[in-house]
Amino acid sequence: MAAALRFLLLTICCCYISSSEANNPVPKLHYDYSRIQETDQAWKCWKEGYRPAPATSNKIHESGNGTAADIERILRFDQSNTVLFLFASNSDNLNLHTTFQIVPNKLVRLSLDNAGLERLELAFTGRDNDCRLAELSVPRNRLSVLPAGVERLTALRKLDFSYNLLEEFSLDRLVNAPGLKQLLLAHNRLESFGASSVQASFASLHKLDLSNNRLRTLDSTYWSMPLLDTFHVDNNRHLTTIGGWTRTRFPLVKGFDPAGTNNWNQTWLKSVQ
Ligand SMILES: *[C@@H]1O[C@H](CO)[C@@H](O)[C@H](O)[C@H]1NC(C)=O
Ligand SMILES: *[C@@H]1O[C@H](CO)[C@@H](O)[C@H](O)[C@H]1NC(C)=O
């Protein structure tokens, strides 16, 4: 009798363990990345038109499914000889919690798309600025602040923080990146965006995306962006006007949708269309 009971308990127990294992396999996450290593690191600052020379560079592309630990290992690649690293995942990454530290003056392009990023750091030690990083794209992560030191990225052409958790953004932090062409901040929680009283001069900026945020007020008085042609600000549901906006200051922007997803003051809107 006791033996039979023991057998029964053992069976139940085993069944329970094996079925819970079957129901909860170690989750695998999709990944896809490209990386270009360049052995010649004698050159210093990035310039428009730069291409890694085939003789001294090596391109790696890999995709697959891995555990969170596998992805963390992939993100810890050696930055000392890397000029490009583009990572993307199409998995639900809610259980992936990663941190990334950028080594200054190495990478030219960095993209970490849906990589479970919760912290991004710039590992500046001395007083040098970074004059290589031209693209910093970290869309679809959980970043709530810009990294300290972002004001030292002088070669920046594209900054993409869309689909993160930013609550504020100051253009003052990018004044050392006058060559900036694209600033993409859609789908954050921005309640403020702007520049302090100093002139924020971005002579090359042609795309600014502030859509799907929480802006209630926006003041463009101190923005100097003569080439701006693509400006998205839809889905800021309480936004009624944009201070300082005139057609002559932003001649290439086509205008705003009167029936769109903002709360435009129609009198103001007619005066700027
Ligand atoms: C990764 O898993 C998905 C399904 O979860 C599958 O469709 C895909 O083929 C896998 N990819 C690789 C490279 O194994
Ligand atoms: C709408 O804008 C006009 C012109 O800019 C302004 O005079 C008016 O007070 C605004 N209306 C509201 C309700 O804020």
From TrEMBL:
SUPFAM superfamilies: L domain-like. InterPro entries: Leu-rich_rpt, LRR_dom_sf, LRR_domain-containing. Keywords: Leucine-rich repeat, Repeat. GO terms for cellular component: cytoplasm. This is Leucine rich immune protein (Coil-less).
